[in-house]
C-alpha cells in the first residue's frame, strides 16, 4: 500500500516535471512532425511500387509512420528516459543516498519513467498524429476498442523499454561512463522496434527473430494492435507477449541490481 | 580568427584526451556511431530487397545521395555538433565563464565537449559513398562530375555547419528549443538520402529556396547522376553550392553575433 502510494506520488511528480518544459515540448513536436512528413513521403514511394508490402496497404503504412513519431518520445526509443539521471548518480556516487532511502530503487525509477511517458504521450504524441491524419489518409480505427487496446499495449511497451534501459543504466556500476552502452541500446531500439521500417518488411528468418525480440513491444506491437492487423485473440496474444517481456526484463533488472549494489563503496563510512 | 582556431584546436585536444580516458566506453561509442548510421543504410537496403527503384532511382544512386549527405552532416556534426548544448549553458549561466576568457565565444562553444566518436558517421558514409561510386553506371566520368563530388561534400559541410550555428544562435532566445534544429540537421539528412522525386514539390521548393539544404547534395548530385531536376531550375544552379554555402555562413555569423549581443546572463 505504502509502495503504491509512493509510486503514484513519484509518477505524478515526474509528469509535472516534464510538463514544465513547454518550449522543449513544442520543439519536440515540430521535430517529430518534420520526420513524420519525410518518412511518409518515402513510404508512399515504397508502397506505390509494391502495394501490400509487409502486409500493410498504403493508409496503414502511413499510419505506422505517424504512430511511430507519436510514440518516439513516450517510449524513449532514442534515449531521454527518466532513469538517465540515475546514470549520473551512479557515476558521482550519489546513488548511495538513494540506496538508504526507504524506497525500492527500481520501482522508484519505473514510476518516474511512467510519469514521464504519460506526459510525453499526451504532449508529444497527440499533435504529430493529428497533423499526420490531416495531411495523409491514415487507416486509424473509429471504434474505441482498438484505441483502448493500443493504450494498454503502449503502457506495456513503455515498461519493457524502461526495463531494458534500467539494465543498461546498471552497467554504469561497472563501466562508470555508461554513455557507450546507452547509445548502443538506443541504436538497437530504433532498428528493432520498427521505427526505421516496419519489422514485417525484414526478410526471412531474420525478420521472424526480430519480431520476437523485446524491442518489437515498443512500436511494432502497439501499431499492429491499433491498425487492427492483430485483433481478437491475436491482440490478446500480443499483449501477453509484451507482458512476458516486461516481467522477464524487470526480473533481470532486480537480479542485476542485487549484484550491482554490492559494488557500492561509500567513502568515509 | 587565427587565435580562435588555435584555441579551438587546444580545447578539442583536451576533450579528446578526456574521452579516451574511459577507453571501453569510447570504443563502444565509436562503434555505435558507426553502426547507427549503418543500420540507417541497412533499412534502405531492406527497402531495395522489395523494390528495384525508389522514385525512379536505383540503389547505387540512392547510396550516392546517402553517402554525400552523410559525409557533409558527419563533418559538420564533428566540428560544430556540440553547439546544441548552448541552451543548457544559457539556462544555468555558465556561458558567463566563456565570456571572460580571451578566446572568441563561438570557438569555445563549438569545441565544448568535442565528441571524437562522431568520426563513426563520417567513416560509414565514406564507405557507402565509395561503394556507390563503384556501382554507378555513369559510363564516362567527366572532369566536371569528378570535381563536383568533393565540392559537394565541402559545401554541404558548410551548409549543415551554418544550420548548427543558426540553431545555437536561436537558443539565446529559446533555451529549451534545441530539438528544433534536429528537424533541419538529422531530418534534413534523412530527407537528402532519398531522391527529390519522392517528395511533394512544395517540400522540394522549401528546401531549395527557404532552407537551402537541396544544395548539400540534391542539385549537384542530379548533375553527377545525369538526372533532370524536378523543379526545372537552370543548369548553373547545380554549381551554386559553394556560393550558397558562403551565404549560409554569412547569415549564421550575423545570427550568432545578434544572439550573443542580446545575451543578458541569468539571475536578477
TrEMBL record, chain A:
Signal peptide: none
One Pfam family from the record: ABC2_membrane_6
Transmembrane segments: 21-43, 63-82, 121-140, 146-175, 187-206, 235-256
UniProt source species: Streptomyces chumphonensis
Source domain of life: Bacteria
Keyword line: Membrane, Transmembrane, Transmembrane helix
Xref: InterPro entries: ABC-2_transporter-like (IPR010390)
Name by which UniProt lists this protein: ABC-2 family transporter protein
Amino acid at each position: 500500500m505504502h509502495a503504491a502510494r509512493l509510486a503514484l506520488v513519484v509518477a505524478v511528480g515526474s509528469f509535472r516535471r516534464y510538463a514544465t518544459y513547454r518550449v522543449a515540448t513544442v520543439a519536440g513536436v515540430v521535430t517529430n512532425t518534420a520526420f513524420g512528413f519525410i518518412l511518409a513521403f518515402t513510404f508512399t514511394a515504397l508502397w506505390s511500387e509494391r502495394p501490400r508490402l509487409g502486409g500493410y496497404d498504403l493508409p496503414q503504412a502511413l499510419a505506422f509512420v505517424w504512430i511511430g513519431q507519436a510514440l518516439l518520445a513516450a517510449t524513449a526509443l532514442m534515449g531521454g528516459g527518466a532513469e538517465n539521471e540515475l546514470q549520473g548518480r551512479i557515476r558521482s556516487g550519489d546513488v548511495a543516498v538513494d540506496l538508504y532511502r526507504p524506497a525500492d530503487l527500481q520501482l522508484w525509477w519505473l514510476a518516474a519513467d511512467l510519469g514521464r511517458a504519460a506526459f510525453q504521450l499526451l504532449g508529444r504524441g497527440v499533435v504529430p498524429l493529428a497533423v499526420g491524419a490531416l495531411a495523409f489518409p491514415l487507416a486509424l480505427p473509429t471504434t474505441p476498442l482498438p484505441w483502448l487496446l493500443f493504450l494498454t499495449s503502449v503502457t506495456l511497451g513503455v515498461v519493457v523499454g524502461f526495463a531494458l534501459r534500467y539494465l543498461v543504466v546498471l552497467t554504469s556500476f561497472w563501466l562508470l561512463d555508461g554513455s557507450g552502452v546507452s547509445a548502443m541500446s538506443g541504436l538497437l531500439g530504433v532498428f528493432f522496434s520498427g521505427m526505421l521500417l516496419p519489422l514485417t518488411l525484414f526478410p526471412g528468418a531474420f525478420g521472424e527473430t526480430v519480431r520476437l525480440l523485446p524491442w518489437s513491444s515498443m512500436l511494432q506491437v502497439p501499431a499492429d494492435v491499433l491498425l487492427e492487423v492483430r485483433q481478437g485473440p491475436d491482440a490478446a496474444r500480443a499483449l501477453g507477449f509484451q507482458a512476458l517481456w516486461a516481467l522477464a526484463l524487470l526480473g533481470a533488472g532486480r537480479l542485476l541490481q542485487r549484484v550491482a549494489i554490492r559494488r557500492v563503496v561509500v567513502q568515509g563510512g | 580568427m587565427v587565435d580562435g582556431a588555435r584555441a579551438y584546436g587546444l580545447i578539442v585536444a583536451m576533450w579528446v584526451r578526456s574521452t579516451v580516458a574511459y577507453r571501453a566506453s569510447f570504443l563502444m561509442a565509436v562503434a555505435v556511431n558507426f553502426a547507427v548510421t549503418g543500420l540507417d543504410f541497412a533499412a534502405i537496403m531492406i527497402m531495395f530487397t522489395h523494390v528495384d527503384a525508389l522514385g525512379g532511382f536505383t540503389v547505387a544512386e540512392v547510396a550516392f545521395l546517402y553517402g554525400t549527405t552523410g559525409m557533409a552532416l558527419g563533418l559538420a556534426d564533428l566540428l560544430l555538433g556540440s553547439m546544441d548544448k548552448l541552451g543548457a549553458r544559457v539556462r544555468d549561466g555558465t556561458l558567463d565563464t566563456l565570456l571572460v576568457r580571451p578566446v572568441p565565444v563561438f570557438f569555445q562553444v563549438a569545441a565544448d565537449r568535442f565528441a571524437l566518436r562522431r568520426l563513426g558517421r563520417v567513416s560509414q558514409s565514406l564507405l557507402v559513398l565509395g561503394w556507390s561510386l563503384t556501382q554507378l553506371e555513369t559510363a564516362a566520368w567527366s572532369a566536371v562530375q569528378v570535381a563536383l563530388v568533393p565540392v559537394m561534400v565541402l559545401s554541404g559541410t558548410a551548409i549543415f555547419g551554418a544550420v548548427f550555428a543558426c540553431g545555437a544562435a536561436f537558443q539565446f532566445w529559446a533555451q529549451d528549443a534545441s530539438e528544433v534544429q534536429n528537424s533541419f540537421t538529422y531530418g534534413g539528412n534523412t530527407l537528402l538520402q532519398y531522391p527529390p522525386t519522392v517528395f511533394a514539390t512544395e517540400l522540394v521548393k522549401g528546401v531549395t529556396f527557404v532552407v537551402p539544404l537541396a544544395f548539400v547534395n540534391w542539385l549537384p548530385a542530379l548533375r553527377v547522376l545525369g538526372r533532370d531536376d524536378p523543379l526545372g531550375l537552370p543548369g548553373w544552379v547545380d554549381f551554386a553550392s559553394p556560393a550558397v554555402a558562403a551565404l549560409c555562413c554569412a547569415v549564421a555569423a550575423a545570427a550568432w553575433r545578434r544572439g550573443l549581443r542580446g545575451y543578458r546572463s541569468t539571475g536578477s
